[in-house]
Amino acid sequence: MKVLDLRCSHGHGFEGWFASNEAFESQLADGLVECPVCADTRIVKLLSAPRLNLGNAKAPAEAAASPAPAASSARVPVESSPEARWMRAVREVLAKTEDVGDRFADEARKMHYGETEERGIRGQATREQTEALLDEGIPVMPLPIPAALKETLQ
Ligand SMILES: [Zn+2]
């Protein structure tokens, strides 16, 4: 995904997201890239350093220079905020673990001592239970679950 800083012949600066430079060039040649402000298709690409996608984080200067287009065919939404990545990571853990609820401490202990099959589990443990598990050398990890996910789990 290429994020390009573009400018129309009237001086409106805006951002366009394209699969590649070639995609941009071909859409530009076909007159498909237009200014979100005035629909001008005489667009030039500004030089800009490559950067990471940081969601909505924008430098103040850039935010001021780029009017937010309400709808532009050049833009595609990308889910890349830190919250979105966290949600994905947590979902992955949830998908790979068995929910043993408040039997967590018992199950973790049984697994550790070979009384039951090793597997990924999740559940609730009190602070005391967690400390006891750690004292016994049983690995326990906190799993902060985003509020939005918690609701869908119950
Ligand atoms: Zn314009």
Account of the 3D structure:
With 154 residues, this protein is an alpha+beta fold. It folds into 2 domains: 2-65, no CATH class; 82-153, no CATH class. 36% of the residues lie in helices and 16% in strands. It has helices at residues 21-29, 60-65, 82-96, 104-112, 127-135, 147-153; strands at 2-8, 13-18, 43-46, 98-101, 121-123. It has a 3-stranded antiparallel beta sheet. A two-stranded parallel ribbon has the order 4-5. β4 (98-101), α4 (104-112) and β5 (121-123) form a beta-alpha-beta unit. Zinc ion binds at residues 8, 10, 12, 35, 37-38, 40.
- Provide the helix percentage: 25-40%
Shape label = rod-shaped
- Total DSSP E strands: 5
User: Any idea what the radius of gyration is?
Assistant: 25 Å
Biggest sheet, spatial arrangement of strands: 2-1-3
The structural domain count equals 2
| Beta fraction | 15-25%
Unreliable segments of 5+ consecutive residues: 49-54, 56-66, 71-76
The biggest sheet amounts to: 3 strands, antiparallel
Report the total helices. 6
Distance between the termini: 37 Å
* Structural class by secondary-structure content: alpha+beta
User: What's the rounded overall pLDDT mean?
Assistant: 77
Bound molecules: zinc ion
Reading the helices and strands in chain order gives: EEHEHHEHEHH
